[in-house]
Design brief:
Structural class: alpha/beta
Low-confidence stretches: none
Number of strands: 30
Largest sheet: 7 strands, parallel
Shape: globular
Number of helices: 19
Radius of gyration: 28 Å
């Protein structure tokens, strides 16, 4: 037994530290331990000393002993390798990555119990009407006092009185109740020949344990989910775990219902909306191997699965898979790497695959399975561009007459319509018509967005809110404030004016902030309680409403500005995805795209259906510019509350930039969002050839420099946001 252990603690400011292993303690690489650090104790993981060098070698006689070794399965070698790779590739502290694996502090402790209550069968001598009602409704049920009171329709005091009377007794139960096991043969779906061929290939990859990344490229409505469900079924038959990543928390609840219809039980969910007790239960079930299928947001990727057999990344093109804070990783790419370390297949499912993914297919690194047509009788919708210069809406309105007519006809047929505008709130800018004052966030270089439904002005970057003032703060003129431009709330007002009898719903992250809210929206749509949906990108993916036959894109030009290298691709994906919500049942669908740039390649490709032509042209443009996937970018963001300090540090970093063949450094310059959350921001952009180890260059470059403690320097490898 080695008397010392190298431990990576959950403290990103520290490197690994050595500790003494006392007799009676048994540790191995991956063991989860509790170690002293000054007066505190921190959780950590034992690591191989040769893979995690320590900056401070300490003699055995000076080592502090480990406080405890948790009775948990060790973090397996494939996950430890993934943590190392992620930290190295994204230039992040290993401890910051490890924190995502140990994502539930309460889960580290041993089994816990809580006290629940159940009826004993004893009838108390004093029986009131409420007591009788409570005992009748509770029956054989068991739960907390509050839960039983809700079931019985009585107050907590009635239940407590029954406990004192001996009619209800306390029972100690473990809170780590096992999850129900999904049944791979619960419901066998009817698949089309194309679906069956793709499903058999995926199931075969799972059965054979192939270390392979497979792109499942199917048009919207082609049944990609049903196809990869067959791969999940194969993993279930083998008793192995599956991870399904979804890009949005709002998609979780509809997915869970769909999963339960196929497998009889819901999978284990992992996302930010879980209560602490739910996270604890899920984490322990995943670590023990009991949770056979987990569906979650990108953070679920780092959980300690005991026997992973399959990874699915649904809507794999989605930019929300890129983490913008903390460890700035891309879940799609890290999922591929976890598949390699675990030696399991990875399925990337998308109707509009990213150019990076398409290039990997072209190079033969990924396999591609195509689903070219919609399932059953459903057909892809017709897409038509509305030239806003030739067919403009009336003054003060945003919907063109052609689109208004189409909505009218759709409602007359008893069908549903969707209007898409990727802009939350009522208006993106509020100004004074008297003096021209514009309302700007005090913490960010951004306009305050008016939210009329909640009567507030809000910054969508830092969250700062304020009530709309009656008078202009600059010239003090009352009732002079005017909203400029449309958001979804303003479109909803226009819909209410044009279609007063229609039942409309605004769907954004402000209204669908939890899986429960998303489920409520889905239920209302399926019940026909909504006629017109007005939504942001939240409605562009994952939803299946057979009676939704019309989609109107209010402003197709919105995403084409801003200098983002992926702007055209992102706009194409977003509009193609929202168009795919139309005509998913037996009724035909139609899509109208409002634009002032009918000749733009994105618009032409959407209308003509020439996705391959668009992607080919966009790929060649990237190749010529040496942009990803043919070159590499890394952003260095310098920020400080002191503007001069940020600028001076950025200049010093720029001056110290090494001269390396195949690499150029642009900047520093103020970031497009020059102030964020009260911090002034400068930006340098590194552009390198694909073959260059740009992380090693940046690590050596920044490692030689020092800057004031108040200055933050962050590196974003493969950036997706250019603000």
């Amino acid at each position: 037994m080695n008397p010392r252990a190298r431990v990576l603690l959950l403290n990103a400011a520290l490197g690994p530290l050595d500790y003494r292993v006392d007799p009676g303690q048994s540790v191995e690489p991956g063991s989860i331990v509790l170690a002293p650090l000054g007066p505190r104790q921190l959780a950590g993981v034992v690591w191989e000393a040769d893979r995690m060098p320590s900056d401070a070698e300490v003699g055995d006689n000076r080592l502090r002993p480990l406080a405890a070794v948790y009775d948990l399965p060790p973090i397996a070698a494939p996950l430890r390798r993934l943590i190392e790779w992620t930290a190295d590739y994204y230039l992040s502290p290993p401890a910051a990555v490890l924190r995502m694996a140990l994502a539930s502090a309460s889960a580290l402790d041993g089994g816990r119990t809580i006290v629940e209550y159940r009826a004993t069968g004893h009838v108390p001598p004093r029986m009131t009407t409420q007591r009788a009602q409570a005992l009748e409704r509770i029956g054989e049920r068991q739960g907390l006092v509050r839960e039983l009171a809700t079931i019985a329709g009585v107050s907590d005091g009635v239940i407590r009185g029954l406990v004192k009377a001996g009619a209800i007794e306390a029972v100690e139960v473990a809170i780590d109740d096992p999850f129900a096991v999904p049944d791979p043969d619960h419901h066998q779906p009817e698949l089309s020949p194309d679906q069956r061929a793709a499903a058999d290939r995926l199931a075969g990859a799972v059965a054979d344990g192939e270390n392979r990344t497979i792109l499942l490229d199917g048009v919207t409505g082609s049944g990609k989910t049903e196809v990869y469900f067959e791969a999940i079924a194969e993993a279930l038959r083998a008793g192995r775990q599956t991870l399904v990543l979804l890009p949005e928390i709002a998609l979780t609840e509809p997915f869970l219902k769909r999963f339960a219809a196929r497998f009889g039980h819901q999978p284990v969910a992992w996302h930010s909306d879980l209560r602490q007790s739910q996270r604890r239960r899920a984490w322990r079930a995943i670590a023990s191997g009991e949770a056979l299928v987990t569906v979650g947001a990108r953070s679920a990727l780092f959980l300690p699965y005991r026997d992973l057999g399959l990874i699915v990344v649904d809507e794999a093109h989605e930019t929300s898979f890129k983490q913008e804070d903390g460890v700035q990783y891309h879940a799609r790419d890290v999922a591929v790497m976890r598949g390699r370390f675990e030696s399991v297949p990875v399925v990337l499912a998308s109707a509009t695959p990213a150019i990076e993914t398409r290039q990997q297919v072209a190079l033969g690194h990924y396999e591609e399975l195509k689903l070219p047509g919609r399932y059953g009788a459903a057909e892809l919708p017709d897409i038509e561009a509305i030239d806003m210069l030739a067919d403009p809406p009336p003054r003060g309105r945003w919907l063109a007459p052609t689109l208004v007519t189409a909505i009218t006809e759709t409602l007359a047929r008893g069908e549903q319509a969707l209007l898409f505008l990727n802009r939350r709130g009522y208006a993106p800018l509020t100004l004074c018509r008297h003096c021209g004052h514009r309302f700007q966030c005090p913490n960010c270089t951004a306009w305050m967005v008016e939210h009329r439904l909640s009567a507030r002005l809000a910054c969508h970057h830092c969250g700062h809110v304020m009530p709309p003032p009656r008078a202009c703060p600059e010239c003090h003129e009352e009732d002079a404030l005017v909203a400029c431009g449309p958001g979804v709330e303003r479109i909803a007002d226009e819909v209410a004016a044009l279609f007063p009898d229609a039942r409309a719903a605004v769907v954004t992250s402000d209204t669908l902030w939890s899986p429960a809210k998303a489920a409520e929206f889905v239920n209302r749509m399926e019940a026909g309680e909504i006629d017109i949906v007005i939504g942001t990108q939240l409605v562009t993916k994952g939803y299946h409403f057979p009676n939704l036959t019309l989609v109107g894109v209010v402003d197709a030009d919105l995403g084409l500005s801003g200098g983002d290298l992926r702007a055209a691709e992102r706009s194409f994906q977003q509009i193609a995805q929202v168009a795919g919500r139309a005509g998913r049942g037996e009724k035909p669908g139609h899509v109208y795209v409002q634009t002032r740039e009918t000749a733009a390649p994105v618009i032409r490709a959407l209308v003509s259906g020439d996705a391959e032509g668009f992607y080919a042209a966009e790929t060649e443009s990237r190749r010529a510019a040496g942009a990803p996937p043919f070159g590499r970018y890394a952003a260095i963001i310098v920020s400080s509350e002191d503007q001069a300090e940020a600028a001076e540090t950025a200049r010093a970093i720029g001056k110290a930039a090494p001269r390396v063949e195949g690499m150029a450094v642009y900047g520093p310059a103020p970031a497009p969002l020059a102030m964020l959350r009260g911090r002034h921001r400068q930006r340098l952009l590194v552009h390198a050839q694909r073959s260059l180890d740009v992380q090693d260059v940046i690590r050596g470059w920044l490692g030689t420099l020092e800057w004031p403690r108040a200055v933050r320097v962050q590196v974003d490898v493969d950036p997706y946001s250019f603000v």
